[in-house]
Amino acid sequence: xxxxxxxxxxxxxxxxxxxxxxxxxxxxxxxxxxxxxxxxxxxxxxxxxxxxxxxxxxxxxxxxxxxxxxxxxxxxxxxxxxxxxxxxxxxxxxxxxxxxxxxxxxxxxxxxxxxxxxxxxxxxxxxxxxxxxxxxxxxxxxxxxxxxxxxxxxxxxxxxxxxxxxxxxxxxxxxxxxxxxxxxxxxxxxxxxxxxxxxxxxxxxxxxxxxxxxxxxxxxxxxxxxxxxxxxxxxxxxxxxxxxxxxxxxxxxx
Length: 254
Description:
32% of the residues lie in helices and 15% in strands. By secondary structure, the chain is an alpha/beta fold. The protein has a six-stranded mixed β-sheet with strand order 1-3-2-4-5-6, sandwiched between helices. Helix 3 packs parallel to helix 5 (114-131) and helix 5 (114-131) packs across helix 7 (210-227).
């Protein structure tokens, strides 16, 4: 009787079970095996589709449920939006918004993945509003062809103390539907990125579920109101009390 040949041990099997990153794909001659190559091509196609997807504004309004106002950036179409990012940071000429002097303005922008916005933004908004009892919140602004900084002219025009921009993140080869949340205190045109806080990779499954993201965003907003700022000076310590106190790596040095 001949012993059956031993199968080679795959040293990457355990690691692949812990991450969606492409590791230990193997080789076929000088290239990849067929299955990993086809998987890569499919992921790339999904990412491209997400970047060029058109946001269904009416469907999004219906799913959000609360009053919504639609605005457009200075980018007239998707080609202009992708070729000139600055256009997506400005409102279209002639845009007029009512000054509400509210605590919070919520902006939903298509960004680089309308797929992510359609999938996750309504759930984040519903969970967040439920946690912000006592806050005056203006109508949700749906911004087409938008970049993160479009929240600055919107928040300034509305007289909002803070602006939250929910926007589709740049798709990767492991995720084409990640939603990002960007918080800015005292929004005015010209705010820098280091003056914002970001909660990223909001998606379920595979990322931060919308309900958990809403809890983190609500905590950051309350801290922003207490401190009067956002950005690098506002450390994300949400949940530190449940973990036994502040992370010593995040504790400010006296």
